[in-house]
Amino acid sequence: MTAGIRGILFDKDGTLIDFNSTWVPLNREAALFAAAGDPDLARRLLEVAGADPDSGIVRADSLFAAGATPEIAAAWIAAGSPYDLDLLVPEIDRIFQSATSAVAIRPTVADPAALFRRLRGRGLKLGVASSDGEVAIRATLAMFGLLDLVDFVAGYDSGHGHKPNPGMVYGFCDATGLPPGAVLMVGDNRHDMAMGRAAGVGLCVGVLSGTGTAATLAGLADLCLPDIGGLEALLDSTGNGPDGIGRLLD
After folding, report:
1. What is the value of pTM for the model shown?
2. How many angstroms separate the CA atoms of 23 and 79, rounded?
3. Which of 32, 65, 125, 244 could form a disulfide bond with 7, CB atoms 3.0-4.6 angstroms apart?
4. Is 110 exposed, middle or buried (0-12, 13-18, 19+ CB in 10 A)?
5. 98 confidence band (pLDDT: 50, 70, 90)
């Protein structure tokens, strides 16, 4: 029997914010930089990282969807980028951090801050674990009024390792005093679900608001929701009351 859920750890891109409206132009910019301005090489680098070079749409579980900046940079160097990791990683991070000023950036639900306040009202601890850098994560959370509503923030560079390894979940548990079995992991990619599984979380919930699909998440997600707006109904249907104590699975 799964222990009562007392905390939720969220992925960011595709889970909290709309993926394609935010990342398609930034991915193109990063690929063109890594290609030293060569448009043909930039198209090849987009493909290597999992984006259609014409539409920019990102494939589920690809490097763009789930990889950390050093992983993207290493793949691009192997595919022909003339730069080394020491130059390419910080430059890609610089480009990706500009997502916080992107006009098109939007959340996956209308008022994520209101949702987070209601979840906190249930006594739940909240955290965010992303393959993005921590500076960019915090800036994005601040943009939507979420930074003061979370108990934990981790990126690939926060010292907890990369997804799908369990370190970010363990970091959340250390910060909140919760055991992994009391944590609900929410994300849009298999890396998120695999991280939750590796850490032994109580429940892995996939959302279909990002690059993942019910088919790609199958076998790792316990269930899928259209977006994070369905979490409250899920908690209500399984007996998670205002004190944050409940049973999600029998």
Report:
1. 0.88
2. 21
3. 125
4. exposed
5. confident
